[in-house]
Amino acid sequence: MQHLHPIEQRVLSAINDDGLLKALADLVSIPSLDGTTAENEAQEAVAALLQSQSMTVDRWEIDLPRLYAHPDCSWEVPRERALGVVGILGEDRGGRSLIFNGHVDVVPAGDRRLWHSDPWQATIVNGRVYGRGALDMKGGLCCAIFAARAIAAAGVRLRGRLVIQSVIGEEDGGLGTLAAILRGHTADAAIVAEPTELKVAPAQAGAHNFRLTVYGAAAHGCVREEGVSAIEKFAPLHQAIIALERTRNERLRAADSSGLFSRYRTPNAICIGVVRAGEWASSEAEQLVAEGRYGIGVGEDPAIARTELEQTVAAAAAQDPWLRDHPPMLEWWGGRFDPASTPMDSPVVQTLAACDQAVRGTPATFEGMTYGADMRLLVNVGGIPTVLYGPGDVRNAHRPNESVAIVDLQTATRVLALTALRFCGYDEE
């Protein structure tokens, strides 16, 4: 630890590492998939945890019809009910206010046979916590909560508000964070505790979901040449999309003067993750539907970027007589993660970087994140300077045996606590 005031040392000493791991284990045990009752169950658990930490808690039923009508709302999974949960520590007494944001929803566990342990039970092996959501991002959320808890437990009075936003629906579009913003839970700055490998990330790339439908003509498999395979007709479209990915990333990398994405060869990836085709094994497939995510660069106009994909698909279809007469349909649907960034000289970026260095003993590393996150809602809708910072590597997310290192959880909690103290200000008694 470097250059810590005695009060700062007292707060960091008050961090309850065992309590953090227990809270994380409790949350991992709740299979809070998007749109399920467990998503709200996880929110209830967080609300109870915040209340036990002496925080003022706002728990409310989100008005889904009203939220769906908002132009910045996007989602993929239908919901009948949704809960918002926000905890507040301190009050405005001349200091700055700060948001810690984290989501409780998780992606499906997938094939259980590929997991070494129960995905819905936190398992500690070799200093790592395994389980769905341990990394993405119940771990980061617990770090934020226990950073706030340490400040309260140490009896330190902040001069500004520290706000904990626990949100749903991040994985399928971000409606939980949008709901919190629209309810008035804003601040002078925000930190989203997504996994960044403890790197300070003042930029987040974007990603929009798309659906491509390709039409063929059915025929009995024994005379398949009398039909048209939608699967075969998808092939040249897919090749054109892959070529577009290469061209776009070369262009966007050349235009990136920040260097925040220099580690990545393809920071704005185009990924087709779902392909469905055909109705019967012995029938020529008359339709194929492909769904994917379309990477959008920081500073890029999403509307113009989307047009580029639309034109690419249309141009490829025009080269094939069948596709020219039966044009494929491209739709934009579901999650809409616009890119976002915060200036490097923003107070929240500089304060976080200084606190990371104070805790870890080496200069902070700055890097852009290539995944979509709720940062873009806080920045683009809320007008709140925001940075991503949290424990673990996103490469271990959305896959079997998701895990996060305990030492990363401990470090992130200390950095977040110190950042809240220095950004919001505190009484020195």
UniProtKB/TrEMBL annotation:
Its cofactor is Co(2+); Zn(2+). Keywords: Cobalt, Hydrolase, Metal-binding, Zinc. Transmembrane segments: none annotated. This is Acetylornithine deacetylase or succinyl-diaminopimelate desuccinylase. It comes from Chloroflexus aurantiacus (strain ATCC 29366 / DSM 635 / J-10-fl). Pfam families: M20_dimer, Peptidase_M20. SUPFAM superfamilies: Bacterial exopeptidase dimerisation domain, Zn-dependent exopeptidases. One of its GO terms (molecular function) is hydrolase activity. Residues 204-320 form the Peptidase M20 dimerisation domain. The keyword Cell membrane does not apply. Belongs to the peptidase M20A family. NCBIfam families: DapE-ArgE.
